[in-house]
Design goal:
The longest helix has 25 residues. Helices cover about 65% and strands about 0% of the residues. It is elongated and about 45 Å long. It has about 90 residues and is mainly alpha-helical.
Length: about 90
């Protein structure tokens, strides 16, 4: 599921025309991927354990709110994409 979220963030970034939206979508997707990599790597003893929480799985209050804000920003970015059937001039 996390890979789907990250791939959707990259797809949103690829579809945007302006640089700010591209960088924002890539950055938000990277934050989610980095959190998951560090937590999963810590559990598998590949990297040292840290105080990071796994997005939407642990009971960290501010982390949970921050991750929902990331999803809200990605939804807003995907909503500003031009629709497939519309013609822009």
């Amino acid at each position: 599921m996390y890979m789907i979220l990250v791939s959707r963030a990259l797809r949103i970034a690829n579809a945007h025309a302006d640089d700010f939206s591209k960088l924002l979508a890539v950055g938000l997707g990277f934050v989610l991927a980095l959190q998951c990599f560090i937590v999963i790597g810590g559990v598998l003893r590949v990297v040292p354990l840290t105080g990071l929480t796994t997005p939407w799985l642990t009971a960290g209050g501010s982390s949970l709110v921050a991750n929902w804000i990331i999803i809200a920003l990605l939804l807003r970015l995907s909503d500003t994409l031009p629709k497939a059937g519309t013609v822009t001039s």
